[in-house]
Write a structure and sequence with these properties.
By secondary structure, this protein is of the alpha+beta class. It has six helices and eleven strands.
Length: 277
């Protein structure tokens, strides 16, 4: 299953690289706008194809009619109670009809979110900036062995290995000396593992974790190949700083921006797509 998830990630990553390519010199919110628009259209289309549109349209009309009735007969308590009962029943039936399409939508939405997290959660380390690299081992006894971090040119390792046996981790502080993608090799005892540090300005795909912790972590952290399940090192993390994304001058988290924009685009385009939500 991990292999399958990794193959899906490997297929989606270049696709999202292509989508972001026209916006690479612009603030990240512009790429988010484009991806959210396409995502909103795709989600509305999928909802339309996986739902009973005729029944949903009928229920929506019934709810609208009963709401008008509530306003017309607002002084007749008995009529209002009957209308509210019908509205409540139609709402439950609508939710039941929407349940299957929403479950189907969870899969593409989750895949999109993992790719957005790769690009918009953190930023590359600026030249001259420091960060912490952590390696997590499966057996804390391995931390008694020698540990070192091998860095290619462009990265300086500033501290010796700092071990935390209770957390099963060993850490180093590094500093980027030049922009680019730099190879790091972690050695703990006889185990070695390679990862990469992304340094530079701007934004782009920045893998913050290479993991061997199963299907969920493999799905959530694309960008680096998964670690073998029998490897002594379980995961590697690099402490990148959060990406500063702004909309109209205001800071906004990428997850909030994606949901607000994709829903807005979806609702704006549902009529041209002929879909009832």
């Amino acid at each position: 299953m991990v292999t399958l998830v990794d193959l899906v990630n490997r297929g989606l990553t270049p696709l999202f690289d292509l989508l972001c390519w026209p916006f690479r010199t612009l603030p990240p919110i512009w790429a988010m706008l484009a991806i959210s628009c396409l995502s909103g259209v795709a989600m509305v289309w999928i909802f339309g194809k996986t739902s009973d549109q005729d029944r949903i349209r009928q229920l929506r009309e019934q709810i609208r009619g009963n709401l008008i009735g509530v306003r017309l007969f607002q002084r007749d308590v008995g009529v209002i109670l009957r209308l509210q009962r019908r509205i409540f029943g139609d709402t439950l039936r609508y939710m039941r009809l929407a349940l299957v399409p929403m479950v189907v939508l969870l899969v593409p939405v989750l895949l999109i979110m993992t790719q957005l997290n790769l690009r918009f959660a953190v930023r590359p380390i600026a030249p001259g900036e420091a960060a912490v690299v952590k390696a997590f081992v499966r057996d804390a006894d391995l931390l008694r062995e020698p540990a070192r971090l091998e860095a290619a040119g462009g990265v300086e390792v500033e501290t010796p290995a700092v071990r935390t046996p209770a957390a099963g981790e060993v850490a180093w502080r590094i500093r980027a000396a030049a922009p680019g993608e730099h190879r790091l090799v972690i050695h703990v005892g006889n185990a070695s593992l390679e990862t990469h540090l992304v340094a530079g300005d701007g934004w782009g795909p920045v893998p913050s974790r290479r993991t061997g912790r199963g299907v969920v972590d493999t799905l959530l952290y694309p960008g680096e190949p998964p670690i073998a399940a029998d490897h002594a090192i379980e995961a590697v993390e690099i402490g990148y700083a959060a990406l500063d994304m702004r909309a109209l001058g205001w800071p906004v988290h990428w997850l909030v921006a994606f949901f607000v924009l994709s829903i807005a685009f979806g609702y704006a385009l549902k009529r041209p797509l002929g879909v009832e939500l």
